[in-house]
Amino acid sequence: MHDIRVDVFDDPACPWCLLGLKRLDNAIDALGNDIRVDIIHHPFLLDPEASEQGEDIVEVLTRKYGQPPFEAWDRIEAEAKKSGLDLDMRKQTMRYWSQPALTLIAAAADKGTQHAVAVALGRAYYLDARNISDLDVLAEIAAEHGFSPEEARAIAGDRSLYPAIAEAAQWASGQGITGVPFFVFAGKFAFSGAQPQEVFAEAFERALREAA
Questions:
Q1: Which residue in 1, 50, 82, 95 is a FRET match for 208, CA 20 to 30 A apart?
Q2: How far are the Cα atoms of 102, 112, 165, 187, 212 from residue 39, in angstroms, in the given order?
Q3: SS3 labels along 70-115
Q4: Residue 166: how many CB atoms within 10 A of its CB?
Q5: DSSP-assigned beta bridge partners for residue 36
Q6: Is 80 in contact with 19 (CB distance < 8 Å)?
Q7: By the 8 A CB rule, do 111 and 73 touch?
């Protein structure tokens, strides 16, 4: 049995993170049964100044990039289809802050369900257009991954935990991580972005060669 650790820096409000996690999962599915992958998620705040109440996502992105996001959305939708992800970027009309969701993802490490929670939150945000800053929504999702609804609501709503999320995100930025998703395989092989599927496969091959 070979164990490979994959560190992932991501934010569930990032659509490219959702695609990157899908490509990571596709690559894991292609591995042999004698390989165990341990995925560790680290918080990154795509928009540290995101409004708690939520904002119109087209307005947010137009203000940030100086032009409407529609062409960029077309590109990611086309890329997502290549990996079996049916993504409609026009479905989610709001940008919500990530602190409650990232706090829940961090807590899920103790449950052994961190990766499943991270994927579920990204899918809820973009595929189902849900508000993943809403504690009831978070509690409902987390209840499928080892939490009681009351426990999930208490953790995600505990504002005393949010500074640690911000500090971890700032640390990542200080390490040179300026965009997400960002992946580190076996502590050595790193790349940024939802790279083509073959890049994920090659990263696992390199990690396995190193382990051997």
A1: 82
A2: 15, 10, 18, 12, 20
A3: HHHHHHHHHHHHHCCCCCCCCCCCEECCCHHHHHHHHHHHHHCCHH
A4: 14
A5: 3
A6: yes
A7: no
